[in-house]
Amino acid sequence: MFATCYDGTEKQKKIIQRAEPDAGVVDCFDHCIQAVMSGYLRSRLLLYTGGRHLTSFFAPSQHVLPDTRCRTFPLPSQARSFSSRRGRSDGSSGQEGENTLRAPRREMDFQLSRLQINAVLCANEQSVRIPEFDGRGGPSPVLRFESNQLSANTPLEDRRSSASCLQTRGMLFGMFDGHGGHACAQAVSERLPYYIAVSMMSESVLEDLEAAMETLRPVPPILQWYKHHNDYNYRESAALYVDHLRVYWQELLASEEHGDGMRPADALSYAFQRLDTDLSLEAQVPLANDLMRNTAIQAAFAGCTACVAYVGPEGVHVANAGDCRAVLGVQEHDGSWSALPLTQDHNAANVTEVERVWRQHPASERQTIIVDDRLLGVLMPLRAFGDVRFKWSRELQQSVLENRDSDLEALNIYQYAPPNYLTPPYLEATPEVTYHRLRQQDRFLILASDGLWDEMTNDEAVRLVAEHLTGIHLQARVSASQLNLGQMHQLLLRRRARATPALDLNGATHLIRHALGTNEYGEMDQERLATMLALPSDLARMYRDDITVTVIYFNSNFSKTTN
């Protein structure tokens, strides 16, 4: 009712024909993925961390592809801790999970083919070109965007969103990193862009929306979505989401100060906080049916971080709550590239953020609020949607959970409060909002979940997108003290061989490929990449996180016009 749907796949066929194979090839790719997951990876894997080797013995399977090559090779990196987000459901920090990794040696002995690697990497790929002029008398600030995601969790806990604001100018891009399940990230990715768009609408436009609802006329569309065919929607809860969005715009209409709508910075901040409040309330009140109730309580007790970029006539506004990240790629006049971060991670590594949390609680809790770099020893991000275990009082949590008819254990929800839970709330979804006026040297913006930033720095990400954009390979620096002459010679030979066009037409895919496959010399290692992609779901999460990336390319004509 509130959106016109747009599938970027169709347009991608017209824009970059090489990037979209025909249906037969797509089916082949799907079969490759299915065979990998159901054949090799179904077999039992054993981990030997002492020597950092991962090997396995596989039983024959009818799903095994004939072109698979097998060999033994070292694991690319040491296993991750049990969870990068929060402890187990019983409240422990997950340290015992690290100890369980030191198991007897077992072996894995195979390698994916290049076709299989590409099939896995490109399964969620999206490329969309935006019309150069927005139809309202000026150039669009966005020329195109490319997006992709790769799961480590099953199911994937990351979500992404991209949409054009139809009642106001500009585009919204969102990155949502879920934890404790995907429910919160799913709900926020669907709903937050609407809350932001409605906040920026003028009073007259909101009156048109309300009049259409009252008279049962078609409602003017608010957003034009750019969806990938694998993106999922909570259709069962759509009526609830519409009702609460309507209540929100009715409150804006009742306000005497709304007038021409909120400025982008205010709209982003207010929408974040309002949606988090709605998620909390929906878990407490009776709802129409069991499915809707279960969805609401799962979304409230799970959590997600969020980073949203609004690219409009004034420039780029970024709202961030958590540890997703937005990084601007800047090309200087001399041709060099630099990374300009537009967000700060909200975790224990950010001293300013830790001090903010400390100030909200008594001094007597200073030693217990942040334990082992986690909030109350459990949660890594210090700002997030949902996560009502860190927001509600003990009494409210107990009341809500005990009065539910649902099977909470089946929903993976348990009655539990973090240790030293004395003066809640400890967590909030209030974003940190930054503004950047677009300049001619600002070429692109990278939005990504922390799964990417665990594997590379801001500068490395910008360098990779820059070389993908320009076709010029910018060599990563290597310290001479790290190599002897023989190693230096081998490295030069590899770099000479690497001076070929990029394998990926999609910049986001290019980043994910290098995040998983880059070795200690900054070079692509196919064996490392194959190993990381071959890990089964119950083991992959120990070595990496879900990775979701969107790269937004700016329209140079827009910056010329505005300047």
UniProtKB/TrEMBL annotation:
<feature type="region of interest" description="Disordered">
    <location>
        <begin position="75"/>
        <end position="105"/>
    </location>
</feature>
<dbReference type="Pfam" id="PF00481">
    <property type="entry name" value="PP2C"/>
</dbReference>
<keyword id="KW-0496">Mitochondrion</keyword>
<feature type="domain" description="PPM-type phosphatase">
    <location>
        <begin position="142"/>
        <end position="554"/>
    </location>
</feature>
<dbReference type="InterPro" id="IPR015655">
    <property type="entry name" value="PP2C"/>
</dbReference>
<keyword id="KW-0378">Hydrolase</keyword>
<dbReference type="GO" id="GO:0046872">
    <property type="term" value="F:metal ion binding"/>
</dbReference>
<keyword id="KW-0904">Protein phosphatase</keyword>
<keyword id="KW-0460">Magnesium</keyword>
<dbReference type="GO" id="GO:0004741">
    <property type="term" value="F:[pyruvate dehydrogenase (acetyl-transferring)]-phosphatase activity"/>
</dbReference>
<comment type="function">
    <text>Mitochondrial enzyme that catalyzes the dephosphorylation and concomitant reactivation of the alpha subunit of the E1 component of the pyruvate dehydrogenase complex (PDC), thereby stimulating the conversion of pyruvate into acetyl-CoA. Acts as a crucial regulator of T cell metabolism and function, with a particular focus on T-helper Th17.</text>
</comment>
<keyword id="KW-0479">Metal-binding</keyword>
<comment type="similarity">
    <text>Belongs to the PP2C family.</text>
</comment>
<dbReference type="GO" id="GO:0005739">
    <property type="term" value="C:mitochondrion"/>
</dbReference>
<dbReference type="InterPro" id="IPR036457">
    <property type="entry name" value="PPM-type-like_dom_sf"/>
</dbReference>
<dbReference type="InterPro" id="IPR000222">
    <property type="entry name" value="PP2C_BS"/>
</dbReference>
<dbReference type="InterPro" id="IPR001932">
    <property type="entry name" value="PPM-type_phosphatase-like_dom"/>
</dbReference>
<keyword id="KW-0809">Transit peptide</keyword>
<protein>
    <recommendedName>
        <fullName>[Pyruvate dehydrogenase [acetyl-transferring]]-phosphatase 2, mitochondrial</fullName>
        <ecNumber>3.1.3.43</ecNumber>
    </recommendedName>
</protein>
<keyword id="KW-0464">Manganese</keyword>
